[in-house]
Amino acid sequence: MQQRPNRPVYLDNQATTACDPRVVAAMLPWFSEFFGNPHSAEHAMGRQAEAAVEQARAEVAALIGADTREIVFTSGATESNNLAIKGAARFAAGQGDPRRRIIMAATEHKCVLESVADLAAEGFESVVLPVGPDGLLDPALLEEALAVPTLLVTVMAVNNEIGVRQDIGLFASMARAAGALFHTDAAQAAGKIPLDVNALGLDLLSISGHKLYGPKGVGALYVRRRPRVRLAPLFSGGGQERGLRSGTLAAPLLVGLGEACRIASAEMEADHARIEALRDRLMARLSQDIPGVALNGSAAARIPGNLNLTFPVATAADLMRAVPDVCLSTGSACSSAEVEPSYVLQALGLSEDAARRTLRVGIGRFTSAADIDFAAQALAFAHAALAPLPTEA
Q1: Do β-strands 101-105 and 181-185 pair in parallel, antiparallel, or remain unpaired?
Q2: Which of 19, 261, 327, 334 is catalytic?
């Protein structure tokens, strides 16, 4: 067995990423030295903070090919998703739009599923489309669903559990042809794969800072200006962010988000190649040492840093207990001591038993080859120890 690392090997980069040291360095002065309120434009320190916030807005916009005026800052993708979905629905209803249909995939993030569910009390109808065994949504199913007048389609760009990439450009064009808005939760995609909101034809896109090596507690929502997408705000207040998101902006966090987006724009291609090589190295080792380990979701249409693996014998909970020096996750919701089988995996057709034997591996910018080799060996040893001994004939 390889030597125990000085600190745990972190392979849960879909849950969160480490804040890049360059991001931390960019943020630090804005906590204490440059502490002005970015909305206090009547004095120098306020204008200084305002300029930093607008530079951050420009960096976020550049990452996704948007105009700076199309970026609304939020606390993260959960708020962005809520604002996009509830905001679009409530504005349309307030204008007398008769459409009440919202379409989404069965594998959307909980905050999307729950946002749409919340709107049922306001008379909106949710249509949940199944995905195939590869985790991908069939365009024919969306086309059929769009035959009924639809207000909004929301399909996530990259799934947070299985890492598969949906064809959001195609789905956006289908939604537009049917007269519906299209929103995508890009928390797992922004900074990891190229995104161009204009080329893709998107109306709304959600970003989370801590998924792309930025700070927690900050994110953004892209809102198309031409043709203009109108939203009803979730918050009442001072009218910041063009009235869509009231509240004093957290300048230090926004500076961090901007720096994280700048780095991602510059280094995405190199990160992609290196992380993909590490992922393939880990998959090859595990396939060799644990015969029968299975990859969930499309092998081709996925981001480089994700492996969602079903093990042949051991449960995910047992494996995680057996490898305390490796940080992994099930991708499942936990309530007290019981781990519920992932609804995403069940949507792919996995049984409850198979879902309980499934781990999510998230490889990132700061993962090393030594980390991969240690994790592969640790998982192989643990699985062998947990597997029942063969019975004699």
Answers
A1: unpaired
A2: 334
